Structure formats: C-alpha cells, structure tokens
Give the backbone structure.
Amino acid sequence: MLRGLMNLDASNVQNHRVCRLGYWYFGDGKKMFGHLDSFQELDKVHAKFHMLCAEAINLYKASNAAKALQMTGEIEKLSNTVIAILNDIKKAKMS
C-alpha cells in the first residue's frame, strides 16, 4: 500500500477475528490450545497488530503516508511476536 501497489480498506483489516489466523484461533486453535498462556497472549498481540494496520491505512488515506510509514516498525515487531508465539504453541504441542 505504501508503495502504491495495492489499495487496502481499514474496515477489512481492523477485525482480527476474520482473518485466517483469527478463524483458526477462535475455532480449532482454541479447542486444542486454549489452556496455554501463550495462546491467550496471542489474541492480545494479534488484535493490536490488526488495530495498528487499520490505523496505518487510515493515516495513508488521509494523506499522511509519512506517519503510516513510521508505524511499520511497530507493525513488523507485532508480526514477529505473533510468529514467535505460534512457534511457542507448536513447541508445546510437540512436548
């Protein structure tokens, strides 16, 4: 989006329950891993990720691309945290 290659709509991004991870989290994931502390932490981090993405989209569409670009570091950090938590859940499953 920041490179002008795609058009995103914040209303399609802000709800973390309706992406692939959200569907898994509130479905099969919750049944299998809902008892894990790391699983519960995933929901908070994932929700914040979506919130910041929606905020960045709104800033970009309000002609504030510079501020949207500043947010990419935090968005990337949250994305990496989501992946780390998923790896922790995977390790717990294997133990």
